[in-house]
Design goal:
Elements: E1 2-4, E2 11-13, H1 26-35, E3 39-40, E4 47-49, E5 55-60, H2 61-67, E6 77-80, E7 83-88, H3 92-102, E8 113-115, E9 120-122, E10 137-140, H4 158-163, H5 176-197
Antiparallel strand pairs: 1-2, 3-4, 4-9, 5-7, 5-8, 6-7, 6-10
Helix pairs in contact: 2-5, 3-5
Length: 207
């Protein structure tokens, strides 16, 4: 539907999805309209539901930035405060405990957690929008109009694990096993760095 402007009579398109009577949150609309992601608004702000299109790995931001160059540049990454969030394939959260045990990281505290089915994360401010200093922001934003699933780290076969390249996954999605191992390594190193910097601490060697 179009409507003419009073001044020139030029047809102007109406909004794709007009605000409802209650006033829909524009951030919710952006995520739903541009990306097709489930978003909800409320007293806590806008949140994205995990477990549908993607799960999320959360780790300390210092560890995340240290490994950022090892990630496929197409895979979305967000940060809020001291926490980085890596988007991974839906269902990956259920695999994390077993993968950490299999990779022999399970006995160590890593500050590496996963958010999956029925979970939520704070919605980062859409790219190019302004937000508060406390808001989550995209470090590597998703691209509107492009399906995110093909580039998200996912669990693959053992053959794929052995041939996976560090960045780009050989043209497909990066492998979740290598991603978890890399994230655990950097989380462990970040903990050692913080412990070494603490007052009265003894020098620690990196593993």
């Amino acid at each position: 539907m179009v409507a003419p402007t009073p001044a020139s009579g030029t047809a102007v398109p109406t909004p794709r999805r007009p605000l409802d009577a209650a006033g829909s949150d524009p951030v919710v609309q952006w995520y739903e309209d541009e990306l097709g992601w489930a978003a909800t608004g409320g007293p806590e702000g806008v949140r994205l539901r995990t477990g549908l299109r993607f799960d999320v790995l959360e780790l300390p931001a210092d560890a995340g930035f240290a490994m950022l160059r090892r990630l496929d540049p197409r895979s979305p990454v967000a940060v809020r405060g001291e926490t980085m969030r890596l988007l991974v394939a839906a269902g990956s959260a259920d695999e994390l405990p077993g993968l950490l045990d299999w990779l022999e990281w399970g006995a160590l505290p890593l500050d590496l957690v996963a958010v999956g089915a029925d979970g939520f994360i704070d919605a980062p401010t859409p790219p190019g929008w302004t937000g508060s200093q406390e808001a989550a922001v995209w470090v590597r934003p998703p691209e509107p109009g492009r399906e995110v699933e093909p580039v998200l780290p996912a669990l693959t076969t053992l053959t794929a694990v052995s041939t996976w390249s560090v960045v780009g996954g050989g043209g497909g999605a990066p492998d979740l096993v290598r991603l978890v191992d890399t994230a655990a390594t950097h989380c462990h190193r970040a903990r050692l760095r913080r412990a070494s910097a603490a007052p009265n601490s003894q020098p620690l060697a990196f593993s």
